[in-house]
What does this fold into?
Amino acid sequence: MKNRINELLEEINQMVASNQEELETLRIKYLSKKGQISELFNDFRNVANEEKREVGQLLNELKNSAQDKINDLKEAFSSSATVESKMDLTRSADPIKLGTRHPLSLVKNEIIDIFSRIGFTITEGPEIEDDWHVFGALNFPPEHPARDMQDTFFIEQNPDVLLRTHTSSVQSRVMAHKKPPIRMLFPGRVFRNEAISYRAHCFFHQVEGLYIDKDVSFADLKQALIYFAKEMFGENTEIRLRPSYFPFTEPSAEMDISCNICGGKGCPFCKHTGWVEILGCGMVDPNVLENCGIDSKIYSGYAFGMGVERITNLKYQVKDLRMFSENDVRFLEQFESAY
Ligand code: PHE
It folds into this structure.
């Protein structure tokens, strides 16, 4: 009898069940009326009197252990412990694949960051514009070629509705509504009716800057641009301002920086000149100030506009403009940054 009790105790200790049904089978096997433990209780009659006390105790212990074990297993099923016991909590989590910022956004954000350190704030204007804000207010004569159908996307039914060809349109909007001092950046997308190739696209991005206050001079413009070029392309970067023409600035200039691909020695990117053009700029034409309701005898200002694609090409040496809008993840994944 004692041997049989020990045998069963052993069996019960090792009992496992992976679901409710298996557990019920075990309960029936040991604890039901016809179960093995109940049978032992029936046999208890035949135990010699002097052993009854000891065997009785063992038998009770066996029954309690069986009951406890079954309860334990049952609890494991009903609590979340089951789920956890099947999980390996020490396993490291699947890595979450983070997206990367678009290279044009990285560069745009960097430009904004550099100018915000010298007090520029940001605003935006509409991409679908009217003739006045894109051309008229900005001193474009009616016959100016930039208004030509070849450059500008017009809406056929209404030639006064067009896609802006430059972010300078935001200059006219801001000046018409805001009193100087104005020190702002206008980032945005612009559209020109050009054949798509590795170096031209029908849309691209610009960041425009406008500073209007009393006594703003060309020297202020030049200082801001030198500061920008060195922050963007490194301390050793040099700039060169070439006289140019824009209807809305007088005097006007185009700014080149020393080619940061060859360090100014000459390479195919800078067409062996050592310089690359990155922006247009100038002093806001007094006519433009007056067109927008700002007294040109009191206020003066400067403006500049740069192509984000151009600067991104220089920074990351992307040779084909079309890459920026093809959404090829193999290209996009290569850009990671805090910006
Ligand atoms: N809007 C001009 C362009 O698109 C750039 C520019 C901006 C020039 C501001 C002067 C001042 O080419």
